Structures are given as structure tokens and as C-alpha cells.
Amino acid sequence: MGKVMKLHDVPMNSKIRVIGGIDTPPSSTQISEDDILEFSHTDGMYSYCENSKGEMVHLVAWAEVEIVKA
Questions:
Q1: H or E element: which one contains 70?
Q2: Can you say whether the dihedral through the CA atoms of 25, 26, 27, 32 is positive or negative?
Q3: For residue 43, what are the contacts with CB-CB under 8 A and spacing of at least 6?
Q4: β-bridge partners, 20
Q5: In angstroms, what CA-CA distances link 37 with 40, 54, 61?
Q6: To the nearest 10°, the Cα dihedral for 42, 45, 48, 49?
Q7: pTM for the full model?
Q8: Under CATH, which architecture does the 4-67 domain have?
Q9: Which of 16, 27, 35, 40 is the most buried (most CB within 10 A)?
Q10: Residues 12, 24 contacting (CB under 8 angstroms)
Q11: Helix or strand or coil: residue 69?
């Protein structure tokens, strides 16, 4: 397991694994622990990420994640 960090500290356009602190906006696509996401950027308290199905998902900026090597 790599270094666990808060999503807001991750460089833009990184591939990440969700570790904890999962929270999403109401009625948005759910995210589970260990999901691998393509992190684009944060916008306020939520982020813009893409899941393995190509869907846009919004993880909270303070979620715990680790960077996954491409």
C-alpha cells in the first residue's frame, strides 16, 4: 500500500485508489472503498473523477486516497 493522503493534496490528473472518508453528493454515482478512479481536479468540496465505467463521479476533497502507479 502506498502513502495515504487527502484527495485535495493529490496532483491533478492522477490515478487514485479510494481508502476511506467516502462521501458523495446526493443522488450521484456511489463510490466504494478500493475503487480506482482517474482524478481530474477538485471544485470546492467535491472532485471530478472518472470511474472504471467512464462515469463522472464526485468524491469529497478530504477523502483518504493513495496514488496508483499507471
A1: none
A2: positive
A3: none
A4: 64
A5: 9, 9, 13
A6: 100
A7: 0.90
A8: Roll (2.30)
A9: 16
A10: no
A11: coil
Q: What is the DSSP string of 6-56?
A: EGGGSPTTEEEEEEE-----TTS----TT-EEEEEEEETTEEEEE-TTS-E
CA distance 60 to 70: 23
CA 67, distance to chain mean position in Å, is 10
Instruction: Give the strand pairing for 64-67 and 56-57.
Output: unpaired
Q: Tally Cβ neighbours within 10 Å of residue 68.
A: 13
Cell of 56: 463522472
